[in-house]
C-alpha cells in the first residue's frame, strides 16, 4: 500500500549485482540533460553575473575609500590654507593698525604745525594792519594840524591885535599844542 | 581517505547484496511493509525501450533541475549591486562554494578555472538530493547510479586535466604513480596501489558514496513512514502506540536527510577540489 502511494507509476525491472552500478542509456541521457542544463546555467549566466556584481561592489567600496581619503586630504589642505590666510590676515591687520597709528600721529603733527603757522600769519597780519592804521592816523593828524595852524593863523591875522597880552597867550598856547602834538607823533 | 574509501566500497556492496536478499525474501505477505529496491526503478512512462525512456525518477530529476534553473534564473536576472534577501541567500551559497571549497583548497589563483564546475556540482547534487524529502517527489534522483556516475566522471576528467596542465601527461603520471621521497623498491607495490586508488577508486567512491547515502536515506524514510502507516491503520491494540515512535523517527530522519543532502553535496564538491589540488601539486 505504501508503494501504491509513494510510487504512483509502479515498479519497473530491478537490476541486480553490478548492473546496479551501470546506468541504462536513457538514465545517462536524462541525467546528462539535467546536469548540462545546470552547468550551462551556472557557467554562462549565474557565475558571470555574480562575479561582475562582486567586482563592481569591490570597486565601489575601494572607490569610496579612495574618495573619502582624497576628501580628507583636501579638507586638511583647505584647513592649512585657511590657517595660513588667517595668520596672514592677522599680520596684515597689525600692519595696518601700525600704519594708521603712524599716519594719525603724522596728521596731528602736521595739523599742529599748520595751526601755529596760521597763528603766526594772523598775528603778523594784525601787526601789519595796526602799523598801517597807525601811519594813516599820523598822516591824517599831520593834515589836520596843518589845517588847524592855517585856521589859527587866519584867526590871528583876522582879529584885531587889541590885546598884546592875549596875543602872546594865544601864540604860546598854539606853540604848546604844536609841541605836544609833535611829541605825540614821535 | 583512500583506505576508508575502498573499505566503504566493500561495505556498500555487502549492504546492497544483503538488502536485495532481504527484500527478495520479505515477499508479499501483505503484513509489514518493507521498502524494496524496486522503488528506485519505477516503470517507464514514455518512450519505453528507447534511449528516451522516461520514468518517475527522470521526471523528479527534471523537476528538480527546472526548479533550480528557475530560481537561479530569476535571482540572477534581478541581481543588483545592493542585494535583496533572495540575492543574499544565493550569494551566500555561491560564496560558500567559491571561498570555503574552491579557494580554500586550491588557492585563489588555481581555483578560478574550476569554480564553474565545483559550483555546478554543489548545487546540482543538492537540488537532486533534496527532492528526497519534498512531498510528492519523495525520491532523490541521485539514488540511482546515473547522476553520481556522470558527476564522478566530470570530477575524474577535471582532476586529470588539472594534473596534465600542471605537469604534462608524462609528468602527471610520474608524480602520481611514483611519488618522490620513496626508496625505489617500494614503487613495485606503491605504483599499482596509486594507479588503482587514483584512477579507479576515486571515481568509484565518489559515485557510490553519493548514491548509497541517498539510497539508504530513502529506504530509511520509506521504512519509518511505512511502519507508521501500518502501525496506525492496521496493527492492533498497544502496537498502535509504537507508531508514535516510528513517526518521531521518520520526522527525525527527514530532518537528517535534509542535512545529508547538503552534506553529500559538500563532500562530493570538496573531494573533487581535493583531487584537483593533489593533481596540481607535485608529490
UniProtKB/TrEMBL annotation, chain A:
Pfam families found in the cross-reference section: ATP-synt_B
Organism superkingdom: Bacteria
Keyword Hydrolase attached: no
GO cellular component, one term: plasma membrane
Main location: membrane
Keyword annotations of the record: ATP synthesis, Cell membrane, CF(0), Coiled coil, Hydrogen ion transport, Ion transport, Membrane, Transmembrane, Transmembrane helix, Transport
A GO term, aspect molecular function: proton-transporting ATP synthase activity, rotational mechanism
Entry's localization field: Cell membrane
Sequence intervals crossing the membrane: 28-47
Topology of the protein relative to the lipid bilayer: Single-pass membrane protein
Keyword Ion transport: yes
Coiled coil: 65-143
Free-text function comment from the UniProt entry: Component of the F(0) channel, it forms part of the peripheral stalk, linking F(1) to F(0). F(1)F(0) ATP synthase produces ATP from ADP in the presence of a proton or sodium gradient. F-type ATPases consist of two structural domains, F(1) containing the extramembraneous catalytic core and F(0) containing the membrane proton channel, linked together by a central stalk and a peripheral stalk. During catalysis, ATP synthesis in the catalytic domain of F(1) is coupled via a rotary mechanism of the central stalk subunits to proton translocation.
Complexes and interactors: F-type ATPases have 2 components, F(1) - the catalytic core - and F(0) - the membrane proton channel. F(1) has five subunits: alpha(3), beta(3), gamma(1), delta(1), epsilon(1). F(0) has three main subunits: a(1), b(2) and c(10-14). The alpha and beta chains form an alternating ring which encloses part of the gamma chain. F(1) is attached to F(0) by a central stalk formed by the gamma and epsilon chains, while a peripheral stalk is formed by the delta and b chains.
Protein family according to the UniProt entry: Belongs to the ATPase B chain family.
Protein name (Swiss-Prot/TrEMBL): ATP synthase subunit b
Taxon lineage: Bacteria, Bacillati, Actinomycetota, Actinomycetes, Micrococcales
Amino acid at each position: 500500500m505504501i508503494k501504491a502511494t509513494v510510487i504512483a507509476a509502479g515498479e519497473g525491472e530491478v537490476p541486480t549485482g553490478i548492473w546496479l552500478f551501470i546506468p541504462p542509456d536513457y538514465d545517462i541521457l536524462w541525467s546528462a540533460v539535467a546536469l548540462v542544463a545546470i552547468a550551462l546555467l551556472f557557467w554562462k549566466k549565474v557565475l558571470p553575473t555574480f562575479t561582475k556584481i562582486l567586482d563592481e561592489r569591490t570597486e565601489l567600496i575601494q572607490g569610496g575609500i579612495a574618495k573619502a581619503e582624497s576628501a580628507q586630504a583636501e579638507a586638511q589642505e583647505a584647513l592649512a590654507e585657511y590657517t595660513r590666510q588667517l595668520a596672514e590676515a592677522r599680520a596684515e591687520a597689525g600692519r595696518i593698525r601700525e600704519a594708521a597709528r603712524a599716519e594719525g600721529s603724522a596728521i596731528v603733527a602736521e595739523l599742529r604745525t599748520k595751526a601755529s603757522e596760521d597763528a603766526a600769519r594772523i598775528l603778523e597780519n594784525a601787526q601789519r594792519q595796526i602799523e598801517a592804521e597807525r601811519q594813516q592816523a599820523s598822516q591824517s593828524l599831520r593834515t589836520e594840524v596843518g589845517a588847524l595852524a592855517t585856521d589859527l593863523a587866519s584867526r590871528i591875522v583876522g582879529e584885531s591885535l587889541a590885546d598884546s597880552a592875549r596875543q602872546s597867550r594865544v601864540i604860546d598856547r598854539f606853540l604848546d599844542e604844536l609841541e605836544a602834538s609833535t611829541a605825540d607823533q614821535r | 581517505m583512500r583506505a576508508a574509501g575502498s573499505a566503504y566500497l566493500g561495505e556498500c556492496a555487502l549492504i546492497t547484496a544483503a538488502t536485495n536478499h532481504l527484500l527478495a525474501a520479505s515477499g508479499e505477505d501483505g503484513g509489514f511493509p518493507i521498502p524494496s529496491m524496486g522503488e528506485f526503478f519505477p516503470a517507464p512512462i514514455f518512450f519505453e525501450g528507447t534511449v528516451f525512456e522516461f520514468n518517475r525518477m527522470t521526471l523528479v530529476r527534471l523537476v528538480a533541475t527546472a526548479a533550480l534553473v528557475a530560481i537561479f534564473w530569476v535571482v540572477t536576472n534581478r541581481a543588483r549591486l545592493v542585494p535583496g534577501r533572495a540575492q543574499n541567500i544565493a550569494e551566500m551559497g555561491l560564496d560558500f562554494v567559491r571561498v570555503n571549497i574552491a579557494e580554500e583548497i586550491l588557492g585563489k589563483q588555481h581555483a578560478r578555472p574550476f569554480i564553474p564546475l565545483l559550483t555546478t556540482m554543489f548545487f546540482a547534487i543538492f537540488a537532486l538530493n533534496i527532492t528526497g524529502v519534498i512531498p510528492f517527489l519523495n525520491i532523490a534522483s541521485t539514488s540511482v547510479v546515473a547522476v553520481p556516475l556522470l558527476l564522478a566522471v566530470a570530477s575524474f576528467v577535471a582532476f586529470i586535466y588539472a594534473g596534465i596542465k600542471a605537469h604534462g601527461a608524462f609528468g602527471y603520471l610520474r608524480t602520481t604513480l611514483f611519488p618522490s621521497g620513496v626508496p625505489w623498491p617500494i614503487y613495485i607495490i606503491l605504483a599499482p596501489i596509486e594507479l588503482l586508488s587514483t584512477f579507479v577508486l576515486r571515481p568509484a567512491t565518489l559515485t557510490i558514496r553519493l548514491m548509497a547515502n541517498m539510497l539508504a536515506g530513502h529506504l530509511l524514510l520509506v521504512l519509518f513512514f511505512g511502519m507508521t502507516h501500518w502501525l496506525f491503520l492496521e496493527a492492533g491494540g498497544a502496537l498502535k502506540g509504537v507508531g508514535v515512535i516510528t513517526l518521531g523517527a521518520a520526522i527525525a530522519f527527514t530532518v537528517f536527510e535534509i542535512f545529508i543532502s547538503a552534506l553529500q553535496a559538500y563532500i562530493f564538491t570538496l573531494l573533487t577540489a581535493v583531487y584537483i589540488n593533489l593533481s596540481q601539486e607535485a608529490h
